[in-house]
Amino acid sequence: MIASLYVEGRTPFHRLPAGAKLLLLVLVGIGLAFLHSPWVLGGALVICAMPYVLLRLPFSETRRRLGLMVLTVLLLGLATAWFESPLAGLVACLRILALVLLAAAVTATSEIADMMAAVTRAMMPLERLGLIKAQDVGLALGLALRFAPEIAGRHQALVAAHRARGLKPRWCHILPALIVLTLKEADEVARAIDARGLRGHKASDR
Amino acid sequence: MSSRDLVLIALFAALVAVLGMIPPVTIGFLPVPITAQSMGVMLAGCILGARRGALAFLLLILMVAIGLPVLSGGRGGLAILAGPTAGYIFGWVAGAFVTGLLAERMVRESQNGPRQILGFALAALVGGIGVVYLFGTLWLAYAKGIALPAVLIGQLPFLAGDLLKVAIAALAARSVMVGYPLLPQRG
Amino acid sequence: MGQGLRKPLLEEDDVVDIRFSACSLSYGERRVLEPLTLDLKEERIGIIGLNGSGKSSFARLINGLQVPSSGMVTVNGIDTAADPAAAAREAGFIFQSPQNQVILPVVADDIALGLTSRGIGKAQAAEQVGAILRRFGIEALARRRVHELSGGELQLVALASVLVTEPSLVIFDEPTNQLDLRNRRKVADAIHGLDRPAIVVSHDLALIADFPRVLLFHEGRLIADGAAAGVIRAYEQVAA
């Protein structure tokens, strides 16, 4: 139900490891903040857009992924041009768009499992500091993906139940019921995790 | 962290993802449609408390980062976290934390209904609007070079809808406290 | 179901030893289980009683999900209070609603998690997952999304996810509660054909009717203990 934004393909960007792409994105994000010349930023935009352009996504797909954001960037750029200077507006637009397009390409060329592995590796220093357990992060992510469709189904059932009784489904009625029904499951799911020994380190924490 | 906390955090992140799939509502006098998802910040803080609420949103951001379209309108991926509105999204973590911190201190299970609703509303107002807008503003104005007046004016159309969300979230949080209390309480 | 599952395969070393010594359980003021001393060694044990009689708590005490308020429970010599994690490894537990114990989105990933979280490598885990899916005749479910499964399929996946870790015994908490007739039969077959001891908490009296030992709980006390037929008669009197 939650379909990934990954796009199959064999572009050079697909072949880069996910961790390297994430690191590249962070470095480019920092680097762009130091550039102020519209000519240099324009060049950066062209370079950053290349991996995304090479994906050859249909226009409708690009609009779905980035349309709203590009619109926001343009509006904010125009407003900045009005309040400060046209140059400031242009610089802000170029800088944001360059990073956004590069980020969109990283997302489209990296599979969820590879991203997850990269994130888990990135968290190992935190685990060594005793702040989190990387294994728990993976488990929490799996749980969220497992139960999101059930929660969506429950939401639809609540809306249907309201309609069946001739009531208009309102957030203030549906939300509490949805939340209570969802969170009440937590006890049993937690017991199952402990009973199956899925967190290794302990069976019960109560 | 107990397994129960871990599961509560994951279920709440999933719930917020589901809130993003509910179509936005247009209300007569409001200029922009309002989405249920950002109400999740207020709800997470008021229902799970500071720590678990903030962790639920960290998990949501992780889902966005690895490329899952869990934000309202099917948005997701790193582009969102690099884009103009990323400040608000990172602000959700801090917002849920502050909302929870205030709710844990102001709301007691022994209080009467109106008192609890008022406490939740105050917590949601400060954490869910104040903190989130602060992060969003700082990000746009200082990290992205957008003119500050443009940022402030751009936010105005959303403010009315967010105030409405405070009211709904406070009512919902109070119902949940009656039905299934989870909020840690501190003096 | 594979035919191999139908015949009991228990051997000497499959027998377990569960001991309750003056074990009681309370939630705050409320006594859920009166002090109980008991030895369980049979390969099939049924647990029956009215709602709220303490039978589920009794089952949870065996794998360390609950620890006794007083006294002690040991499973194959492991004190459940001292090492609940070890007790949980010894006694697998199948919950009433399988939808809450299958916790990853894809069937094979969920089953593998029980192995990888115990430090078993990915390749070996995949092999064992394949074997257990074949054993239950549900290979076709391997890459399926959990939320698309039927109740009966979910119950079998839950059972596979527990059995893949090779517990010494399996506890079932009302396993046929929410199933239609066909799925009930599948699960009943799986329980009867299980190659290791099973403890079954159930309202489904037909499921336990041929068990060598059945315990009847009533208001937190064990009031009957013996072969199925006699204990079921006692239950009918209590329920009347």
From TrEMBL, chain B:
Subcellular location: Cell membrane
Membrane-protein topology: Multi-pass membrane protein
UniProtKB keywords: Cell membrane, Membrane, Transmembrane, Transmembrane helix, Transport
Gene Ontology MF terms: biotin transmembrane transporter activity
UniProt entry tagged with the keyword Membrane: yes
Broad class of the protein's primary localization: membrane
Domain of life: Bacteria
Species this chain originates from: Xaviernesmea oryzae
UniProt protein name: Biotin transporter
Positions of transmembrane segments: 55-74, 86-105, 117-143
Family under the similarity heading: Belongs to the BioY family.
Organism lineage: Bacteria, Pseudomonadati, Pseudomonadota, Alphaproteobacteria, Hyphomicrobiales
GO cellular component entries: plasma membrane
